[in-house]
Design a protein that fits this description.
Distance between the termini: 47 Å
Radius of gyration: 24 Å
Number of helices: 16
CATH topology of the largest domain: Endonuclease, Chain A
Structural class: alpha/beta
CATH class of the largest domain: Alpha Beta
């Protein structure tokens, strides 16, 4: 048998095997996974256009997680059941007697979050809003210095650079003083930090846990399902949640991005306990512990004395059949009567989300969307630009932020309520990543968030119907290709 004949036999076997594997995964996608039809067609297209390669992408990016409650604890459910029953009764009475205050218009959303996500309404919080990384981390370092009992820190990305070194020095010192310090990090987002450094922190008395660690060294089998949450809880008195990760780019030390515009909330009050619950659920899963047995971690939370904000902590992830944060966004949009302000680095809505926004625009609601002017992920950016253009043509106001990179994630409605946190407005955040947001029911604080948005407009360029129609052919091609792949992005 000559060399050429052998080559063709081997090639035929490989191609036949690839087609068989593609057929297998096509059957799995169509018949065994309850996916959105657009996502199904996108994966089928990829599998059959790239035989032999498409199934590798599916293994790494497309495998569906079991829709199970990965983070449930019986102790938590038993305690929450009693609290929620009492709150529902109290809220019903407050709505009837007129004492509901700023949250009255959104009582249905509050009840929905209670029913579907066990999200307790947490009253009397002070909220500080940070849009600059240096200011946020300066405040965080000061709060860490004041810790007396415990520090719980969770981030998607931690880079072992100048910023984390500053934080780690404080954490080591507090651990030496007897403060319990726990760091929960994502295996994908923190892959640049070597295991030797986590070992150094453990030797300094800091407990660490890795969410979805790599397989066989650095091989990530669950690339799609990442813990995107950023949470800090200190002594149940102070908590942080928002968009900033830990790395020098987040304090404007990256030439690539320049100024990093983000939004992070510092919560003083009972809201800290809501974020503590979320952290512990994640920690228990990653560390194989049960911190709910340690009652010291659930001491009476601090109380705000200034803003008196009511809020709920809501989370979502692929372990849940409901897309909780997406549903909150949709409900807020549908309830808007006057104006909506949205900031997001990635805007890839599903059909229901997009149609809800379009209905709001066509109903006379002023819809304002702000996205970055530069991509950190090109495919995602051009899909985002395509959807923004669709809103512009419907009558919405859309802007690109020109003063660096916009990473802020949230929505403000009618100057009464806002929802900010870690979740982008894309399919990945809605269905694939583990996210956490705060829904804040307070008119004064919502108006402050609107003022911040309007300040950002000074550094924006509006996308008009004329400018969008005049975009070059190359941009149009990028948009259409990336929009076609948007269910996979």
């Amino acid at each position: 048998m000559d060399t050429m004949e052998t080559f063709w036999r081997v090639a035929t076997i490989i191609l036949g095997s690839a087609l068989f594997v593609n057929l297998f995964f096509a059957i799995v996608i169509v018949f065994f996974e309850h996916r959105d039809p657009k996502s199904v067609w996108a994966w089928l297209l990829l599998l059959f256009l790239l035989p032999g390669v498409g199934f590798v992408f599916y293994l790494l990016l497309g495998m569906d997680m079991n829709k199970r409650k990965m983070f449930r604890e019986k102790e938590l459910e038993d305690n929450l059941g009693e609290i929620l029953r009492a709150q529902r009764y109290q809220l019903k009475n407050s709505n009837e007697d007129g004492s509901a205050g700023d949250r009255k218009e959104y009582m249905d959303l509050i009840m929905y979050n209670m029913e579907t996500a066990d999200a307790v309404l947490l009253p009397d919080n002070d909220i500080d809003v940070f849009t600059d990384g240096n200011e946020k981390f300066d405040a965080l370092l000061q709060d860490l210095e004041q810790a007396e009992h415990f520090i719980h820190l969770q981030y998607y990305i931690i880079r072992n650079d100048v910023l984390f070194q500053r934080i780690a020095e404080v954490l080591k010192r507090k651990a030496a003083e007897g403060v319990e310090v726990r760091i929960l990090f994502d295996g994908m987002g923190c892959r640049s930090v070597g295991k030797s450094y986590w070992k150094i922190l453990k030797e300094a008395g800091i407990q660490t846990a890795e969410f979805f660690p790599a397989f066989l060294g650095r091989l990530q089998l669950r690339v799609n399902y990442r813990n995107h949450r950023k949470i800090v809880v200190i002594d149940n008195k102070i908590a942080y949640v928002g968009g900033f990760n830990i790395g020098k780019e987040y304090i404007d030390l990256s030439e690539r991005f320049g100024h990093w515009r983000d939004t992070h909330l510092r919560i003083t009050g009972s809201g800290a306990l809501g974020l503590q619950m979320r952290f512990i659920l994640d920690w228990n899963y990653a560390a194989k512990e049960n911190l709910f047995q340690d009652r010291r971690l659930f001491a009476e939370p601090g109380h705000g004395t200034r803003d008196h904000c009511d809020l709920q902590i809501i989370s979502s992830g692929p372990d849940n059949s409901l897309e909780q944060i997406r549903d909150n966004y949709i409900r807020l949009i549908s309830k808007a009567k006057e104006r909506i302000y949205i900031q997001t680095p990635y805007f890839i809505p599903d059909e229901v989300f997009l149609n809800t926004l379009l209905i709001a625009v066509r109903s006379g609601v002023e819809v304002n969307l702000m996205i970055p002017c530069k991509p950190d992920h090109p495919f995602v950016y051009w899909a985002t630009y395509s959807y923004a253009g669709q809103l512009v043509n419907a009558g919405a106001n859309c802007y690109t932020y020109d003063n660096g990179f916009l990473h802020s994630k949230g929505i403000i409605v009618d100057g009464q309520v806002f929802c900010y946190g870690t979740a982008n407005m894309d399919i990945r955040s809605f269905a694939l990543n583990f996210e956490v947001n705060a829904v804040v029911y307070n008119r004064a604080k919502a108006e402050e968030m609107e003022r911040i948005f309007k300040e950002d407009l000074k550094y924006c360029t509006q996308i008009t119907k004329d400018s969008y129609a005049a975009r070059p052919l190359k941009i149009r091609f990028k948009e259409q290709m990336c929009r076609l792949l948007s269910p996979l992005l």
